[in-house]
Input
Amino acid sequence: MRPQTLLPRAPWVLLYYTNSAKGEYLLDWKIALDPDLLNEPKRELHHTIAHELTHLIQWQQNRIRHRALQTKYAYLYAQKIPKGEEACDIWTYARHPDLVAPSGYLHTPFEMRKGETSCEFWNRKFRFYEKHCNEIHELAKKAIELRARGCRRYIKWFLDELRLIL
Ligand SMILES: [Zn+2]
Output
C-alpha cells in the first residue's frame, strides 16, 4: 500500500543526508541525518533523531498542535514550544527518558579530568546521562511546567538542578 493512502492529509517528512552534523533540521518538513549515526549507541541515535523531529515540531507546531493535544504528550504542547537549541533539547528530554543523552547545547559543568582522553570524557558523560535519564526527564518536564507558569529562566533552572546531581 502506498504511504499516501495510509496518511491521507498528513504532510511528508523528507529525509536527507548530511555529513556536516549528526543531524540537521532543514526547513519545512525536511530533516537530514548522517547514516554514521547507526554506529552510535542506541541512546545517542534516538536522541539525535528526536532532537531533529523536535525542531520540526518547533517550526510546524501550528500544523501539529491540535492533534498532538489529543495524545499522552499533550503536556509538551500545552504552550507554544519556543524556538532554539536549548529549548529543543529540554522538550526532547521531556518526551521520554530513553531520549536523554548528552546535549551539545545545554552546557553542564562537566570537566575533563587530568589524563582523560576526549573519548573517555565523552563516555563518562554519556554514562552519567544514561544513569540519570529518569531524573533528567523529570527535570525537563518540571522546567516546561515552570515556563508555562511564567518562569522565563526555566533553562537556567534546569541546568542548576542538573548540576545538583552531577
Ligand atoms: Zn538542533
